[in-house]
Amino acid sequence: MTLIQLFLDQLDREAPRTRRALELVPQGHDDWKPHAKSMPLLRLAGLVASMPSWVSLIINKDELELNPPAGQGQYQQPSAGSLVQTLDKAVSDARASLSSTTDNVLLTTNWKLLSSGKVVSEARRHVVLVDTFNHLAHHRGQLTVYLRLLEQKVPAIYGPSADDPQFA
After folding, report:
1. Which helix H or strand E contains 81, and what residues bound it?
2. Pairing of strands 110-115, 63-65
3. Distance between CA 129 and CA 131 in Å, rounded?
4. Radius of gyration from C-alpha coordinates of the chain
5. Whole-prediction pTM value?
6. Residue spans of alpha helices (H) in the chain
7. Which tens digits make up the pLDDT trace of 110-142?
Protein backbone atom coordinates (compact mmCIF):
# COMPACT_ATOMS: atom_id res chain seq x y z
CA MET A 1 0.00 0.00 0.00
CA THR A 2 1.21 3.47 -0.81
CA LEU A 3 1.22 6.37 1.62
CA ILE A 4 -1.14 8.19 -0.74
CA GLN A 5 -3.63 5.31 -0.58
CA LEU A 6 -3.37 5.26 3.22
CA PHE A 7 -4.33 8.96 3.37
CA LEU A 8 -7.11 8.51 0.78
CA ASP A 9 -8.56 5.65 2.83
CA GLN A 10 -8.39 7.71 6.01
CA LEU A 11 -10.12 10.61 4.28
CA ASP A 12 -12.85 8.22 3.09
CA ARG A 13 -13.39 7.03 6.68
CA GLU A 14 -13.29 10.45 8.34
CA ALA A 15 -15.51 12.35 5.88
CA PRO A 16 -18.80 10.56 6.68
CA ARG A 17 -18.07 10.72 10.42
CA THR A 18 -17.51 14.44 10.14
CA ARG A 19 -20.61 14.87 7.97
CA ARG A 20 -22.81 13.19 10.62
CA ALA A 21 -21.64 15.69 13.25
CA LEU A 22 -22.06 18.72 10.97
CA GLU A 23 -25.57 17.67 9.95
CA LEU A 24 -26.62 17.99 13.60
CA VAL A 25 -25.31 21.53 14.21
CA PRO A 26 -28.39 23.51 15.23
CA GLN A 27 -29.41 26.76 13.56
CA GLY A 28 -29.61 29.92 15.63
CA HIS A 29 -26.75 29.17 18.04
CA ASP A 30 -23.87 30.60 15.97
CA ASP A 31 -22.29 32.58 18.81
CA TRP A 32 -23.02 30.06 21.59
CA LYS A 33 -20.03 28.74 23.50
CA PRO A 34 -19.81 26.60 26.63
CA HIS A 35 -17.20 28.81 28.29
CA ALA A 36 -15.85 32.33 27.83
CA LYS A 37 -12.54 30.92 26.56
CA SER A 38 -14.23 28.51 24.13
CA MET A 39 -14.69 29.00 20.41
CA PRO A 40 -18.23 29.96 19.30
CA LEU A 41 -20.27 27.10 17.82
CA LEU A 42 -20.36 28.30 14.22
CA ARG A 43 -16.64 29.07 14.20
CA LEU A 44 -15.89 25.57 15.53
CA ALA A 45 -18.29 23.90 13.09
CA GLY A 46 -16.81 25.92 10.20
CA LEU A 47 -13.32 24.85 11.23
CA VAL A 48 -14.37 21.19 11.32
CA ALA A 49 -16.10 21.49 7.94
CA SER A 50 -13.16 23.17 6.24
CA MET A 51 -10.30 21.27 7.88
CA PRO A 52 -10.02 18.66 5.08
CA SER A 53 -9.09 21.58 2.81
CA TRP A 54 -5.81 21.67 4.71
CA VAL A 55 -4.80 18.49 2.87
CA SER A 56 -4.71 20.41 -0.42
CA LEU A 57 -2.95 23.32 1.23
CA ILE A 58 -0.24 21.02 2.63
CA ILE A 59 0.28 19.32 -0.74
CA ASN A 60 -0.01 22.32 -3.07
CA LYS A 61 1.64 25.09 -1.04
CA ASP A 62 4.95 25.14 0.80
CA GLU A 63 3.75 27.19 3.77
CA LEU A 64 0.88 28.96 5.47
CA GLU A 65 1.11 32.39 7.06
CA LEU A 66 -1.22 32.59 10.06
CA ASN A 67 -1.09 36.40 10.16
CA PRO A 68 -1.25 37.51 6.52
CA PRO A 69 -1.45 41.18 5.55
CA ALA A 70 -4.97 42.62 5.69
CA GLY A 71 -7.18 41.31 2.93
CA GLN A 72 -4.92 38.38 2.03
CA GLY A 73 -6.33 35.69 4.33
CA GLN A 74 -7.72 32.51 2.80
CA TYR A 75 -10.33 31.35 5.30
CA GLN A 76 -13.97 32.17 4.64
CA GLN A 77 -16.32 31.29 7.51
CA PRO A 78 -19.10 29.07 6.12
CA SER A 79 -22.68 29.79 7.12
CA ALA A 80 -24.55 27.34 9.31
CA GLY A 81 -26.51 26.22 6.25
CA SER A 82 -23.43 25.50 4.15
CA LEU A 83 -21.35 23.38 6.55
CA VAL A 84 -21.96 20.07 4.76
CA GLN A 85 -21.32 21.61 1.33
CA THR A 86 -18.09 23.12 2.67
CA LEU A 87 -17.02 19.70 3.92
CA ASP A 88 -17.93 18.00 0.63
CA LYS A 89 -15.87 20.48 -1.42
CA ALA A 90 -12.91 20.24 0.97
CA VAL A 91 -12.97 16.42 0.81
CA SER A 92 -13.24 16.44 -2.99
CA ASP A 93 -10.32 18.86 -3.27
CA ALA A 94 -8.28 16.81 -0.79
CA ARG A 95 -8.87 13.63 -2.81
CA ALA A 96 -7.77 15.41 -5.99
CA SER A 97 -4.62 16.79 -4.34
CA LEU A 98 -3.68 13.45 -2.82
CA SER A 99 -4.25 11.72 -6.16
CA SER A 100 -1.99 14.20 -7.94
CA THR A 101 1.06 13.90 -5.67
CA THR A 102 3.49 11.11 -4.85
CA ASP A 103 4.70 9.33 -1.77
CA ASN A 104 8.15 10.72 -2.49
CA VAL A 105 6.89 14.32 -2.27
CA LEU A 106 5.15 13.61 1.04
CA LEU A 107 8.17 11.80 2.48
CA THR A 108 10.96 14.14 1.37
CA THR A 109 9.61 17.69 1.31
CA ASN A 110 8.82 19.99 4.21
CA TRP A 111 5.86 22.23 4.91
CA LYS A 112 6.02 25.32 7.11
CA LEU A 113 3.61 27.17 9.34
CA LEU A 114 4.48 30.85 9.77
CA SER A 115 3.29 33.51 12.17
CA SER A 116 4.14 37.06 11.14
CA GLY A 117 6.90 35.68 8.92
CA LYS A 118 8.47 33.53 11.64
CA VAL A 119 8.54 29.74 11.19
CA VAL A 120 6.61 28.25 14.11
CA SER A 121 6.46 24.71 12.76
CA GLU A 122 8.20 22.79 9.99
CA ALA A 123 7.92 19.10 9.21
CA ARG A 124 7.74 16.62 6.37
CA ARG A 125 4.41 16.81 4.57
CA HIS A 126 3.37 13.28 5.58
CA VAL A 127 3.82 14.22 9.25
CA VAL A 128 1.74 17.38 8.82
CA LEU A 129 -1.00 15.35 7.13
CA VAL A 130 -1.12 12.87 10.04
CA ASP A 131 -1.30 15.79 12.46
CA THR A 132 -4.12 17.31 10.39
CA PHE A 133 -6.26 14.17 10.66
CA ASN A 134 -5.59 14.11 14.41
CA HIS A 135 -6.48 17.78 14.63
CA LEU A 136 -9.76 17.10 12.79
CA ALA A 137 -10.66 14.32 15.24
CA HIS A 138 -9.90 16.65 18.17
CA HIS A 139 -12.10 19.50 16.96
CA ARG A 140 -14.86 17.14 15.83
CA GLY A 141 -14.82 15.73 19.36
CA GLN A 142 -15.19 19.26 20.73
CA LEU A 143 -18.12 19.77 18.38
CA THR A 144 -19.90 16.68 19.71
CA VAL A 145 -19.53 18.04 23.25
CA TYR A 146 -21.12 21.30 22.10
CA LEU A 147 -23.95 19.28 20.54
CA ARG A 148 -24.57 17.44 23.82
CA LEU A 149 -24.53 20.67 25.84
CA LEU A 150 -27.08 22.17 23.43
CA GLU A 151 -29.36 19.12 23.94
CA GLN A 152 -28.74 17.93 20.37
CA LYS A 153 -28.16 14.35 19.34
CA VAL A 154 -24.57 13.13 19.24
CA PRO A 155 -23.81 10.90 16.25
CA ALA A 156 -21.83 7.70 16.27
CA ILE A 157 -18.27 8.54 15.28
CA TYR A 158 -15.93 5.63 16.09
CA GLY A 159 -18.62 3.62 17.82
CA PRO A 160 -22.15 3.99 19.12
CA SER A 161 -23.25 7.07 21.04
CA ALA A 162 -26.13 7.36 23.51
CA ASP A 163 -28.19 8.80 20.63
CA ASP A 164 -26.96 6.74 17.69
CA PRO A 165 -26.59 2.96 18.16
CA GLN A 166 -24.86 2.30 14.85
CA PHE A 167 -21.28 1.15 15.08
CA ALA A 168 -19.61 3.53 12.64
Report:
1. none
2. parallel
3. 5
4. 17
5. 0.94
6. 3-23, 41-50, 53-60, 83-99, 103-108, 125-149
7. 999 999 999 999 999 999 999 999 999 999 999
